Amino acid sequence: MKFRAEKRIDAPVWMNVVVTLLFVSFAFVAGGLFLYTQGVPPLSAYWIILRSSFGSGYDLSETVVKALPLAMVSIAVMLCYTMLIWNIGAEGQALLGALAAAAVVRYFPAESRVAMLSLMAVAAAVAGGVWAGIAGFLRVKWNVNEIITTLMLNYIAIRLLEFFIYGPWRDPSSLGFPMTKPFIDSARLPTLWGTRVHMGLFALLVLAVVMEVIMRKTRWGYEIRVMGDNSRAASYAGMNYFRGVVGVMFLSGAIAGFTGMCEVAGLQGRIQAGFSAQYGYTAIIVAWLSHLSPALSLFVAFLMSSLLVGGAALQIEMGLPLASAAIFQGLILFFVLGGEFFLNYSVRLDLGPAKGPDAHEKYAGGGG
Amino acid sequence: MKKFVMLSLACCFCTMAGAVFAAPVPVEEINPGYMYLGPVGDGGWTYSQEIGRLAVDAAFPALKSAIVESVPEGPESVPIMERLIRQNKSKLIFACSFGYMDFVQDVAKKYPDTTFMHVSGYKRADNVGTLFGRMYEPRYLSGLVAGNASKSGNIGYVAAHPIPEVIRMINAFALGVRKVNPNATVKVIWLFSWFDPGKEKEAAKALIDAGCDVIAMHADTGAVAQACEEAKTYVIGYNNDMTKYAPTMQLTAPIWNWEKLFAPVVQQVADGTWKSEAIWLGMNSGAVDLAPFGPGVPEDVRKLVDDEKADIISGKQKVFAGPIKDQSGKVIVKDGEAMSDDDIWSMGWFVEGIVGDIPK
Q1: pTM for the whole structure
Q2: Is the backbone of residue B323 left (phi > 0), alpha (psi -120 to 50) or beta?
Q3: Chain B residues touching residue A323 (CB < 8 angstroms)
Q4: How many CB pairs below 8 A link A and B?
Q5: pLDDT tens, residue order, chain B (360 aa)
Q6: Domain chopping of chain A, boundaries
Q7: Nearest alpha-carbon partner for B285 in B98, B132, B60
Q8: CATH number (domain holding residue B30)
Q9: How many domains does chain B have?
């Protein structure tokens, strides 16, 4: 006797909703139990998380600030994941984008904000795109595993950034501390409503709509999906897998690079050591939780951001140590991702030898 | 409660009337917020600050302090400070790492009624002061110990970021080493990170493999001390007494007593006497000190170090007093002169006897 998991072919919508809600509530129960063991009353903790993410205009704005790069980078990577190309180097591509933007500000400063920001955006997108494109090219040319190359390129990007901020681009008035000069005013993304939310928000909304349309409605989007489902069949159908992979990687890296530029021009106005906030990795989870849908990722990134914000709030108001806050966040994500499994697979108790035409569909046994 | 409201109202009027100092804040309303670079369990930098915070809390039982650990030195730090102010009602923020500098300035502009103390920075404002210890003094003393302990004359130094704070301490250490061991050299490896236990350990091993028989370090954790204990190589700890990581091999360690830095600020805010200034406390304040000697330090060295320590505390001796040469042998500080605080603060060159480059 053992458990077996079968892939669901078409689950009805109500089932999606029920299973998702069920597992989200499991998540909160498990998270609550954990908080309880840490001496934190769970209900007040959840109230604090809600209040600190949505409680006031300020809280809402800060949740958006955190959600913005998460959503943007998740849109970047989900493009690759749709065709089963594993770009986990968005972190490095975003850093390269920020670096390229800083280079443009340094060497081609312009008075006009429109000219300056457009130039920075193009430079950032090209830099991020080329960085990812390298991994895409290696993948299709010599079948080099892109998981490894994109990851390794992250480290190179970090070192490259350090080289410039410790070396040639170091602000001479910083007394030797590693940071670039502050950007000129025309190179700063304007912020909105007196908060830290910057114009990148509009770019994100446009991007989400455009990418949703590209993925669902255009021929290229269709090709990407087909190549993801079956690259050989796609080749037989006359689709160019080589161009497809390199193109998708380039676009993915370009969006990530653009995100890096938005972050540096919107929030900081200079690059300094420790600039990155690891959005490139968290966004991968966002991409999967939003079922590779750009529109949905806006929503998921927002929820993820409130979970991250909640971690800090729990430290401040409840005196919860960082590690416990991280365990709590991990528990919530674990259950939500677990729910994804049950959405895609139905688990049956297997009493006898497998039989019938669906036997070949068996997923690895042993239970979920 | 009502009394305090009246009191603070009265104080508001005082401020309006042009008083120089901020209004006194009742101790139970200061709610100091500490923003830390690492986790409190890092066994070094953040750990010693947390010990300091707990000591301050014990000294002022009415204080309700809050902490946030592992806050990156980037735009991420802004909402953390704002949340401490909004949610913990902090009237005093300790931003405990260098990289928070610009963000402290931004937040301070938005919250003029909150007092900010930025650890190790140099930018101040009406409500921003800076706070640091003259760690180069115990560093120099630890150099005397290391110079005496080294047989080969090769001493290693695991260093975080090539910034003045770290360079200053390497220089002070090397001056101590070469005072007792004139031909010894100090070999530097940069980590480009404050907190990276894996890299810290690797760097220590690399230096030991390169023939160094004493290792000093400037990083946030106890990883270097652990590596040295495993390799049975003498080590000079940092931040706090690292005996528990290197029970037999730690010679000594330049250490922080953060409560000596934090507590006076809390008192000033409570009294309404706080003003924006650069606080830079030396060994005479007890804010920086030397950990107890380990078993590997002989009696005559202990005596020598204690004597020099007394001279530093009394002000008779200055660490950066001439003659001091740079790596190329050029005299930078002439005999009979001493470096100014500004020059010490912004040091960007190595003294003679150091092997390694400062990335340009």
Answers
A1: 0.80
A2: beta
A3: 39, 41
A4: 94
A5: 444 444 444 444 433 433 345 688 888 888 999 999 989 988 889 999 999 999 999 999 989 899 999 898 888 899 899 999 998 899 999 999 988 988 999 899 999 999 999 998 888 999 999 999 999 999 999 999 999 999 999 999 999 988 888 999 999 999 999 999 999 999 999 988 888 899 999 999 999 999 999 999 999 889 999 999 999 999 999 998 999 999 999 999 999 999 999 999 999 998 889 989 988 999 999 999 999 999 889 999 999 999 999 999 998 889 999 899 999 989 999 988 889 988 998 898 999 999 998 876
A6: 68-297
A7: B132
A8: 3.40.50.2300
A9: 2
